[in-house]
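Backbone-to-sequence.
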């Protein structure tokens, strides 16, 4: 093999390797702790079980409601109630997915494909303040449910009972972690981005 061919081959191999390595680095901004990325991913997954439960309710799967609650749901699902439940599940999942922006480059620089603001640097407080408020609200709602609210809902005789109540509870249980996870990821983002501005 000639020197020129060896150089071309090495350059080609290098070009194939470097973009992949650069892509890996680009998925997590420098200084982002691995635990923050894992917490952000867990945030996204924390809303999936409850979303699936709502979708099952929306398409008419019997989830355990009876009596007046069942009678109130019957004309709505499947139907307009289905659209509401799909939208609610989608909105929750979208809100949870936004947490990924705190551990991805698009949380620091707006993607170029977004009209008007694409390519601009995200001001850290523009991400930190809404994320912190969101985590506080989610944590408050979760703690309210944990300490009485959920038990009160299930004490209604028309609410799911037995195995249906267990399934519903297990589907909503991961959402208790949503607020604290967002708080942890927000802390890591604030520490990384606000520290650069000093």
């Amino acid at each position: 093999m000639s020197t020129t061919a060896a150089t071309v081959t090495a350059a080609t191999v290098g070009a194939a390797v470097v973009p992949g390595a650069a892509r890996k680095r680009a998925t997590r901004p420098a200084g982002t702790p691995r635990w923050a990325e894992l917490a952000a991913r867990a945030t996204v997954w924390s809303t999936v079980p409850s979303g699936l439960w709502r979708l099952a309710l929306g398409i008419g799967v019997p989830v355990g409601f009876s009596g007046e609650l069942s009678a109130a749901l019957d004309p709505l699902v499947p139907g307009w109630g289905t659209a509401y439940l799909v939208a609610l599940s989608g909105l929750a999942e979208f809100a949870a997915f936004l947490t990924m922006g705190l551990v991805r480059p698009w949380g620091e620089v707006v993607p170029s494909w977004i009209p008007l603001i694409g390519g601009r640097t995200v001001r850290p407080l523009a991400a930190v303040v809404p994320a912190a408020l969101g985590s506080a609200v989610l944590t408050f709602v979760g703690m309210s449910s944990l300490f009485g609210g959920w038990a009160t809902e299930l004490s209604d005789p028309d609410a799911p009972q037995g195995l249906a109540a267990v399934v519903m509870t297990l589907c909503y249980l991961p959402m208790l972690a949503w607020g604290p996870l967002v708080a942890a990821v927000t802390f890591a983002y604030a520490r990384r981005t606000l520290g650069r501005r000093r």
